Amino acid sequence: MNLIVKSGKGHDMKTPIELFGVECGKGWHELIRPLIERCKEEGVVIAQIKEKYGTLRFYTNGGESEELRDMIHKAEDESGLICEDCGSPGVLYTRGWLRTLCDSCQEIWEN
Fold first, then answer.
1. Where are the alpha helices (DSSP H) in the chain?
2. Which one of 51, 91, 109, 110 counts the least CB within 10 Å of its CB?
3. pLDDT score of 6
4. Boundaries of domain holding 97
5. Strand 4-6 and strand 12-14: pairing?
6. What is the C-alpha separation between 87 and 97, in angstroms, rounded?
7. Which CA distances in Å does 77 have to 15, 42, 54, 70?
8. Residue 73 DSSP SS3
9. What is the reported pLDDT for 9?
10. Tell me, what's the pLDDT at 110?
């Protein structure tokens, strides 16, 4: 999959995903995997995959189908119910930093 974007000045600019990789815990990888596969099928460039405000954010450089957009929105919504660290059912904790975690991972995170 091509993750390099051409700037208007003729220079190759790396996307955030090339610079930083996937910026969320392994617990959400099952949500992300089908999105990546669909992006490959459609030839859509992934710009960034990260956690923001306790839930998944999956950004592309546009051009995705309506079906892929729906898949992305669904995965982002579901991430608020899945522990980012382990993939178990989770809840959004709002003490300080926002994180979606299961009870076990939340205890580890707070200690």
1. 16-20, 29-42, 66-78, 103-110
2. 110
3. 41
4. 4-110
5. antiparallel
6. 19
7. 24, 22, 11, 11
8. helix
9. 53
10. 85
The model's pTM: 0.83
Structure tokens at 95: 């003490």
| Per-position pLDDT tens, the chain of length 111 | 344 444 445 556 777 778 778 899 999 999 999 999 999 999 999 999 999 999 999 999 888 999 999 999 999 999 999 999 999 999 999 888 899 999 999 999 888
Overall domain count for the chain? 1
d(CA 50, CA 32): 10
Residue 14 has what pLDDT?
A: 77
Catalogue the long-range contacts made by 82-88 (C-beta closer than 8 Å, 24 or more residues apart). 82/27, 82/28, 82/31, 83/25, 83/27, 84/24, 84/25, 84/27, 84/28, 84/51, 85/25, 85/26, 85/27, 85/109, 86/25, 86/26, 86/27, 87/26, 87/27, 87/28, 87/29, 87/30, 88/27
Report residue 58 as tokens: 């999956």
